[in-house]
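Subject: Interface between my chains keeps coming out wrong

I've been trying for a while to get a sensible model of this assembly. When I model each chain on its own everything looks fine, but I need the whole thing in one frame so I can look at the contacts. Pasting all components below, labels as-is. Any help appreciated, I'm running out of ideas.
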Amino acid sequence: MASPLEQFVIKPLVPLNIGGYDVSFTQSSLWMAFAVIAATLLMTLSMRSKSLVPNRWQNVTEMLYEFVAGMVHEALGHEGRKYFAFVFSVFMIVLMGNMLGMIPYSFTYTSHIVVTGTLALLVFLTATAIGFIRHGLHFFTLFLPAGLPIVLAPLIIMIEVVSYLSRPISLSVRLFANMVAGHTMMKVFAGFSVMMAASSGIGLVGSVLPLMINTALFGLEILIAFIQAYVFAVLTCMYLKDAIELH
Amino acid sequence: MDLQSAKMIGAALAVLPLFGVGLGLGMLFSSIINAIGRNPSVAGTVKGAGLLYFALIEATGLFALLIALIVLLG
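Reply #2:
Try treating it as a single job with all components included. I did that and got this:
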Protein backbone atom coordinates (compact mmCIF):
# COMPACT_ATOMS: atom_id res chain seq x y z
CA MET A 1 0.00 0.00 0.00
CA ALA A 2 1.21 3.52 -0.77
CA SER A 3 2.73 5.61 1.99
CA PRO A 4 0.41 8.29 3.41
CA LEU A 5 3.02 10.90 2.48
CA GLU A 6 2.94 9.95 -1.20
CA GLN A 7 0.13 12.43 -1.87
CA PHE A 8 2.59 15.31 -1.42
CA VAL A 9 4.93 14.25 -4.24
CA ILE A 10 5.16 16.96 -6.88
CA LYS A 11 4.77 15.64 -10.44
CA PRO A 12 5.74 17.78 -13.42
CA LEU A 13 3.01 18.11 -16.04
CA VAL A 14 4.99 20.12 -18.60
CA PRO A 15 8.71 19.52 -18.08
CA LEU A 16 10.71 22.72 -18.59
CA ASN A 17 14.39 23.34 -18.05
CA ILE A 18 15.81 26.84 -18.30
CA GLY A 19 19.51 27.42 -17.72
CA GLY A 20 19.96 24.27 -15.65
CA TYR A 21 17.01 25.09 -13.39
CA ASP A 22 13.95 22.86 -13.28
CA VAL A 23 11.03 25.22 -13.82
CA SER A 24 8.49 22.59 -14.89
CA PHE A 25 4.79 23.34 -14.80
CA THR A 26 3.83 20.95 -12.00
CA GLN A 27 0.48 19.91 -10.59
CA SER A 28 1.25 22.34 -7.77
CA SER A 29 1.40 25.20 -10.30
CA LEU A 30 -1.79 23.90 -11.92
CA TRP A 31 -3.72 24.05 -8.65
CA MET A 32 -2.30 27.48 -7.87
CA ALA A 33 -3.62 28.64 -11.23
CA PHE A 34 -6.99 27.04 -10.40
CA ALA A 35 -7.03 28.89 -7.07
CA VAL A 36 -6.42 32.24 -8.73
CA ILE A 37 -9.05 31.53 -11.38
CA ALA A 38 -11.58 30.33 -8.79
CA ALA A 39 -11.03 33.38 -6.55
CA THR A 40 -11.28 35.79 -9.48
CA LEU A 41 -14.41 34.15 -10.87
CA LEU A 42 -16.05 34.10 -7.45
CA MET A 43 -15.31 37.77 -6.86
CA THR A 44 -16.26 39.09 -10.30
CA LEU A 45 -19.21 36.90 -11.29
CA SER A 46 -20.96 37.05 -7.92
CA MET A 47 -20.72 40.84 -7.77
CA ARG A 48 -21.93 41.40 -11.33
CA SER A 49 -25.53 42.12 -10.37
CA LYS A 50 -24.51 44.46 -7.49
CA SER A 51 -28.02 44.25 -6.08
CA LEU A 52 -28.95 45.83 -2.76
CA VAL A 53 -30.53 42.57 -1.62
CA PRO A 54 -27.75 40.05 -2.34
CA ASN A 55 -28.33 36.59 -3.74
CA ARG A 56 -26.41 33.63 -2.30
CA TRP A 57 -23.21 34.08 -4.32
CA GLN A 58 -23.05 37.79 -3.65
CA ASN A 59 -23.61 37.02 0.02
CA VAL A 60 -20.54 34.75 0.12
CA THR A 61 -18.38 37.42 -1.47
CA GLU A 62 -19.68 40.12 0.85
CA MET A 63 -19.12 37.91 3.88
CA LEU A 64 -15.52 37.26 2.88
CA TYR A 65 -14.96 40.95 2.18
CA GLU A 66 -16.50 42.11 5.43
CA PHE A 67 -14.69 39.43 7.41
CA VAL A 68 -11.27 40.58 6.21
CA ALA A 69 -12.23 44.26 6.30
CA GLY A 70 -13.30 43.91 9.93
CA MET A 71 -10.08 42.10 10.76
CA VAL A 72 -7.93 44.81 9.14
CA HIS A 73 -9.94 47.58 10.77
CA GLU A 74 -9.62 45.99 14.19
CA ALA A 75 -5.83 45.73 13.92
CA LEU A 76 -4.88 48.86 11.99
CA GLY A 77 -7.82 51.21 12.46
CA HIS A 78 -8.81 53.68 9.79
CA GLU A 79 -5.33 53.67 8.27
CA GLY A 80 -5.68 49.98 7.47
CA ARG A 81 -7.74 50.65 4.32
CA LYS A 82 -4.49 51.05 2.35
CA TYR A 83 -3.39 47.55 3.29
CA PHE A 84 -6.74 45.84 2.83
CA ALA A 85 -6.03 44.66 -0.72
CA PHE A 86 -2.76 43.05 0.37
CA VAL A 87 -4.26 41.24 3.35
CA PHE A 88 -7.29 40.14 1.32
CA SER A 89 -5.10 38.70 -1.47
CA VAL A 90 -2.99 36.77 1.03
CA PHE A 91 -6.13 35.51 2.76
CA MET A 92 -7.76 34.39 -0.50
CA ILE A 93 -4.73 32.54 -1.89
CA VAL A 94 -4.28 30.63 1.38
CA LEU A 95 -8.01 29.94 1.76
CA MET A 96 -8.36 28.76 -1.84
CA GLY A 97 -5.28 26.55 -1.50
CA ASN A 98 -6.59 24.92 1.66
CA MET A 99 -10.15 24.52 0.37
CA LEU A 100 -9.27 23.23 -3.12
CA GLY A 101 -6.96 20.77 -1.39
CA MET A 102 -10.01 19.22 0.27
CA ILE A 103 -11.33 18.02 -3.10
CA PRO A 104 -10.45 14.32 -3.48
CA TYR A 105 -7.56 13.65 -5.90
CA SER A 106 -6.61 17.32 -5.92
CA PHE A 107 -3.33 18.74 -4.67
CA THR A 108 -2.83 21.04 -1.66
CA TYR A 109 -0.13 23.52 -2.61
CA THR A 110 -0.14 24.99 0.91
CA SER A 111 1.24 21.64 2.12
CA HIS A 112 4.64 22.59 0.74
CA ILE A 113 7.04 24.70 2.77
CA VAL A 114 8.35 26.36 -0.38
CA VAL A 115 4.90 27.87 -1.06
CA THR A 116 4.06 28.90 2.51
CA GLY A 117 7.64 30.06 3.07
CA THR A 118 7.45 32.35 0.06
CA LEU A 119 4.11 33.76 1.23
CA ALA A 120 5.41 34.28 4.78
CA LEU A 121 8.60 35.91 3.49
CA LEU A 122 6.52 38.20 1.29
CA VAL A 123 4.45 39.27 4.31
CA PHE A 124 7.54 39.69 6.48
CA LEU A 125 9.52 41.71 3.93
CA THR A 126 6.50 43.90 3.12
CA ALA A 127 5.95 44.67 6.80
CA THR A 128 9.64 45.42 7.35
CA ALA A 129 9.80 47.63 4.23
CA ILE A 130 6.69 49.55 5.34
CA GLY A 131 8.27 50.05 8.76
CA PHE A 132 11.50 51.43 7.28
CA ILE A 133 9.67 53.66 4.79
CA ARG A 134 7.39 55.16 7.45
CA HIS A 135 9.86 55.49 10.30
CA GLY A 136 13.34 55.34 8.75
CA LEU A 137 15.99 54.22 11.21
CA HIS A 138 13.52 54.98 13.99
CA PHE A 139 12.07 51.56 13.10
CA PHE A 140 14.71 49.93 15.32
CA THR A 141 12.92 51.22 18.44
CA LEU A 142 10.56 48.30 17.75
CA PHE A 143 13.16 46.12 19.43
CA LEU A 144 13.37 48.27 22.56
CA PRO A 145 10.10 48.68 24.47
CA ALA A 146 9.78 52.15 26.02
CA GLY A 147 10.48 52.59 29.72
CA LEU A 148 12.83 49.62 29.96
CA PRO A 149 15.64 49.69 32.55
CA ILE A 150 18.90 50.18 30.66
CA VAL A 151 20.48 47.18 32.40
CA LEU A 152 17.98 44.84 30.77
CA ALA A 153 18.30 46.42 27.32
CA PRO A 154 20.95 44.10 25.77
CA LEU A 155 19.03 40.98 26.77
CA ILE A 156 15.63 42.28 25.67
CA ILE A 157 16.95 43.58 22.35
CA MET A 158 18.48 40.19 21.62
CA ILE A 159 15.23 38.38 22.44
CA GLU A 160 13.15 40.83 20.40
CA VAL A 161 15.42 40.58 17.37
CA VAL A 162 15.36 36.78 17.45
CA SER A 163 11.59 36.69 17.88
CA TYR A 164 11.19 39.19 15.03
CA LEU A 165 13.39 37.17 12.70
CA SER A 166 11.64 33.90 13.56
CA ARG A 167 8.27 35.30 12.48
CA PRO A 168 8.40 34.10 8.86
CA ILE A 169 9.50 30.65 10.04
CA SER A 170 6.66 30.19 12.51
CA LEU A 171 4.14 31.71 10.08
CA SER A 172 5.08 29.35 7.26
CA VAL A 173 5.65 26.20 9.32
CA ARG A 174 2.29 26.62 11.10
CA LEU A 175 0.32 26.54 7.87
CA PHE A 176 2.45 23.88 6.19
CA ALA A 177 2.48 21.53 9.21
CA ASN A 178 -1.28 21.86 9.67
CA MET A 179 -1.97 20.91 6.08
CA VAL A 180 0.53 18.03 6.04
CA ALA A 181 -0.72 16.63 9.36
CA GLY A 182 -4.39 16.88 8.37
CA HIS A 183 -4.03 15.24 4.98
CA THR A 184 -1.71 12.54 6.34
CA MET A 185 -4.20 11.74 9.10
CA MET A 186 -7.04 11.36 6.61
CA LYS A 187 -4.90 9.09 4.43
CA VAL A 188 -3.96 6.96 7.46
CA PHE A 189 -7.61 6.46 8.41
CA ALA A 190 -8.48 5.64 4.81
CA GLY A 191 -5.65 3.10 4.93
CA PHE A 192 -7.19 1.48 8.04
CA SER A 193 -10.44 1.13 6.14
CA VAL A 194 -8.74 -0.52 3.16
CA MET A 195 -6.75 -2.87 5.39
CA MET A 196 -9.87 -3.98 7.26
CA ALA A 197 -11.89 -4.41 4.10
CA ALA A 198 -9.15 -6.62 2.66
CA SER A 199 -9.69 -9.14 5.45
CA SER A 200 -12.92 -11.09 5.26
CA GLY A 201 -15.74 -11.51 7.79
CA ILE A 202 -15.87 -9.11 10.73
CA GLY A 203 -13.17 -6.87 9.24
CA LEU A 204 -15.37 -6.12 6.26
CA VAL A 205 -18.15 -4.87 8.55
CA GLY A 206 -15.68 -3.04 10.79
CA SER A 207 -14.14 -1.16 7.89
CA VAL A 208 -17.13 1.18 8.03
CA LEU A 209 -15.82 2.54 11.35
CA PRO A 210 -12.66 4.26 10.06
CA LEU A 211 -14.71 5.52 7.14
CA MET A 212 -17.11 7.22 9.55
CA ILE A 213 -14.19 8.75 11.45
CA ASN A 214 -12.76 9.93 8.15
CA THR A 215 -16.04 11.63 7.30
CA ALA A 216 -15.91 13.51 10.62
CA LEU A 217 -12.25 14.35 10.00
CA PHE A 218 -13.25 15.84 6.66
CA GLY A 219 -15.46 18.34 8.47
CA LEU A 220 -12.67 19.12 10.93
CA GLU A 221 -10.23 19.63 8.07
CA ILE A 222 -12.54 22.11 6.35
CA LEU A 223 -12.74 24.03 9.64
CA ILE A 224 -8.94 23.93 9.95
CA ALA A 225 -8.56 25.06 6.33
CA PHE A 226 -10.58 28.17 7.14
CA ILE A 227 -8.99 28.80 10.56
CA GLN A 228 -5.48 28.58 9.15
CA ALA A 229 -6.28 31.12 6.43
CA TYR A 230 -7.78 33.33 9.15
CA VAL A 231 -4.72 32.95 11.39
CA PHE A 232 -2.40 33.72 8.48
CA ALA A 233 -4.32 36.90 7.70
CA VAL A 234 -4.61 37.96 11.36
CA LEU A 235 -0.88 37.54 11.90
CA THR A 236 -0.23 39.51 8.70
CA CYS A 237 -2.35 42.31 10.20
CA MET A 238 -0.41 42.12 13.48
CA TYR A 239 2.96 42.32 11.74
CA LEU A 240 1.76 45.30 9.71
CA LYS A 241 0.49 46.89 12.92
CA ASP A 242 3.89 46.47 14.56
CA ALA A 243 5.57 48.06 11.55
CA ILE A 244 3.13 50.99 11.42
CA GLU A 245 2.67 51.78 15.11
CA LEU A 246 5.97 50.54 16.59
CA HIS A 247 4.41 48.98 19.71
CA MET B 1 20.82 -0.39 19.31
CA ASP B 2 20.44 -0.30 15.55
CA LEU B 3 19.57 2.88 13.68
CA GLN B 4 15.96 1.98 12.89
CA SER B 5 14.96 1.41 16.52
CA ALA B 6 16.86 4.52 17.62
CA LYS B 7 14.91 6.51 15.04
CA MET B 8 11.60 5.14 16.28
CA ILE B 9 12.43 5.94 19.92
CA GLY B 10 13.57 9.39 18.86
CA ALA B 11 10.34 10.01 16.96
CA ALA B 12 8.31 8.88 19.97
CA LEU B 13 10.28 11.24 22.23
CA ALA B 14 9.72 14.08 19.76
CA VAL B 15 5.95 13.96 20.22
CA LEU B 16 6.18 14.36 24.02
CA PRO B 17 5.31 18.10 23.71
CA LEU B 18 1.74 16.90 23.04
CA PHE B 19 1.47 16.76 26.83
CA GLY B 20 1.77 20.54 26.97
CA VAL B 21 -0.48 21.01 23.96
CA GLY B 22 -3.22 18.94 25.58
CA LEU B 23 -2.84 20.91 28.79
CA GLY B 24 -2.98 24.18 26.88
CA LEU B 25 -6.06 23.22 24.87
CA GLY B 26 -7.82 22.05 28.02
CA MET B 27 -7.08 25.32 29.76
CA LEU B 28 -8.16 27.33 26.71
CA PHE B 29 -11.52 25.58 26.37
CA SER B 30 -12.17 25.58 30.12
CA SER B 31 -11.66 29.34 30.19
CA ILE B 32 -13.88 29.81 27.15
CA ILE B 33 -16.67 27.82 28.82
CA ASN B 34 -16.09 29.76 32.04
CA ALA B 35 -16.27 33.10 30.28
CA ILE B 36 -19.43 32.22 28.34
CA GLY B 37 -21.00 30.74 31.46
CA ARG B 38 -20.39 33.91 33.43
CA ASN B 39 -21.42 36.29 30.69
CA PRO B 40 -23.31 34.64 27.81
CA SER B 41 -23.56 37.93 25.89
CA VAL B 42 -19.82 37.86 25.02
CA ALA B 43 -20.05 34.39 23.45
CA GLY B 44 -19.37 35.63 19.89
CA THR B 45 -16.23 37.60 20.76
CA VAL B 46 -14.84 34.93 23.07
CA LYS B 47 -15.38 32.19 20.50
CA GLY B 48 -13.64 34.23 17.80
CA ALA B 49 -10.59 34.84 19.97
CA GLY B 50 -10.70 31.24 21.17
CA LEU B 51 -10.50 29.88 17.61
CA LEU B 52 -7.40 31.98 16.92
CA TYR B 53 -5.63 30.77 20.05
CA PHE B 54 -6.79 27.21 19.37
CA ALA B 55 -4.94 27.36 16.06
CA LEU B 56 -1.84 28.85 17.69
CA ILE B 57 -1.72 26.14 20.38
CA GLU B 58 -2.43 23.38 17.90
CA ALA B 59 0.47 24.58 15.76
CA THR B 60 2.84 23.81 18.67
CA GLY B 61 1.77 20.18 18.57
CA LEU B 62 2.24 20.11 14.82
CA PHE B 63 5.78 21.45 15.17
CA ALA B 64 6.45 18.40 17.35
CA LEU B 65 4.87 16.13 14.75
CA LEU B 66 7.06 17.70 12.08
CA ILE B 67 10.22 17.03 14.12
CA ALA B 68 9.04 13.45 14.67
CA LEU B 69 8.52 12.95 10.92
CA ILE B 70 11.95 14.42 10.17
CA VAL B 71 13.55 12.09 12.74
CA LEU B 72 11.66 9.09 11.41
CA LEU B 73 11.97 9.64 7.65
CA GLY B 74 14.89 12.06 7.30
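Reply #3:
Confirming on my end. Chain A has a mean pLDDT of 89.
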